[in-house]
Amino acid sequence: MIQKKYYVFAAIAVAIIAGILTLNPLRSDAAPVKQEVVAPDSTAAVAEVKWYTVEEALKMQDSTKKKIFMDVYTTWCGPCKMLDANTFHHPEIMRLLNEYFIPVKFNAESGDTIVYKGQTYVNPNYSPKPRTSTHQFAIYIASTQQGLGYPTMVWLDENGDMIQPLSGYLEPSRLEPILNSFGTNAYKTTTWPDYYKEFKSAITQ
User: Fold this and answer.
1) Do 54 and 116 contact (CB within 8 A), yes or no?
2) Peptide bond between residue 151 and the one before it cis (omega within 30 degrees of 0)
């Protein structure tokens, strides 16, 4: 009888120990618990850029005291579409445009009437057909020493006066320091070569 009780207690002890080993997460042979690491969303806090008309932006300057960034484009221009898709949708570029500027899109072949600095600009030969005519305002505001090309980015100061037009497609990393220089007013006190040499990009790729 005593021997039977011994066997019973022994069996119970073995079962308890086995159960403890099975439940113990520190066991060397226990399957590791997978912890999911969620990468932060770098674009979560960046608002999409809201684009305005020339008329809206000029009116907004009275209350916002911001500079104007203008994208002068055409509907048929390939580099214009690349600039919009690749550069203007980069998180850092969106942040800079939202923080420092009133963003404007202007179709250089539109039929809009633009009043700027007391002067009225139209497209006298307007046609909905592309490559037919060019708006007077595009010629005035976006022409460079090389003539008028697309896309051309134009910066106007807080009073709507010209800072600089710049033609051609730019990748985010090339546009970033320019937006920073104009946005922070560094262009007023620092030459571009000196500013660019010391500039620290926030774009990692």
Assistant:
1) yes
2) yes
